[in-house]
Amino acid sequence: MPPAAALLDEMVEEVFLRFPPDEPKHLLRAALVCKRWRRIVSDRGFRRRFCELHRKPRMLGFLYNRSHSSIFVPTCSFRPPSAAHRYGPVIDARHGRVLLLPGFPDWEKRPLDNAFVVWDPITSERRELPLLPRSVRSADWNAAVLCATAPGGACDHLDCCGGPFLVIFVATDKGRMFDYAYSSETGAWSEQTSAQHAAGCRMALSPSALVGNALYFLNGYLKTVLKFDLGTRKLSVIRIPPSCYFGSIVLMITEHGGLGFATVVNSELHLWSRESGSEEDAGWVQSRVIELKTLFPAHILDSLYVTGFGEGVDIIFVRGNRKDFTIDLKSIQVTKVQKDIGIRLAHMFPYTGLYTPGENSLQRALLRAEVIVDEAMGRHIKNQAMLQQLDVRYETPCIEATTLDTFRYQYHDEKEAKDKAVVYVQNKFC
């Protein structure tokens, strides 16, 4: 018969597994209670079971570009340990990874001069890719990041963070389209493949869509879609229906798992889908129309357009009168984005996943809690090496002299100081 402690741990784990996946602060709060609970929560087996139980990823936040940087806006209690804007504008987000391209002022036109960065907001890990081959001269390009096992369908992407990934770079130039593929396993870009295309097929820096074994990218005039087959690396062009040439378009995955796109026309959200196996222009059908007049006031409707689609969560981002909203395609529920972005905005990049804190992030959070408690009790930390190790000045500017003095004068009781420190760490790192 298993010892009582083991049985208790199993019962505790069953309770933790039922915590809401879109509120990761509860798991961190549990991990801060004692070492046994921390081991349970940070165990890879627990994280896998947690992901399998809840299955469907949640939207943890979204990114948008502002000037020469990107901003991560959380939609739940999750907070990334480091900020995306340090690494440059966002190009794509998928399978728990974010693709960024540092460098300014001409980062859109010069992917050659700046190295792409793949960032994991959950673990804060970042990987700088080698520069593209110097033979690339096109100013019309786009790129996408995805799990390396996605082409074969061998991964459900519930817990593939830290695993191998691919970055696909596509571009058009002088009547031809070409691509490069980067693999994290080889650490290098592949040889170029290319194909001819009709005049006027230019790339747009808008969110791509992964449907089955292919990536899809919009062109600059919103009249065609470039298809990249991940298995054969073959490039081809699909035309958008002429009735949708005007207005903003976002590519999406339909409810049946096929390629689709969304656009706003005359106060209606039009959803289009491409018939399976069709390579003809007539392969598009309008699958759904959502009336927006009952969902938005008139001053929003007048300027409403689509800005993004959340893969795996079936959410459309729209913007009107400089206000941002999400539309749940299943419930038709509209939610206003709490952060007032206020700037001219073209695209949103939703970030989805299932967050469970790993051992490293928990240890770092606990160390910082100890720093706060020690300072709150008047035990000043003089070890600069420890402060540097904790990244206090770089990642957590709030833990400075003023903040620590506030803790020191407010909390004379050690238990009260510890309680306050735990609350502070929860708010800071979840």
TrEMBL record:
Coiled coil: none annotated. Residues 7-50 form the F-box domain. Signal peptide: none annotated. It holds the Pfam family F-box-like. It comes from the Eukaryota. This is F-box domain-containing protein. It comes from Eleusine coracana subsp. coracana. The lineage of its organism: Eukaryota, Viridiplantae, Streptophyta, Embryophyta, Tracheophyta.
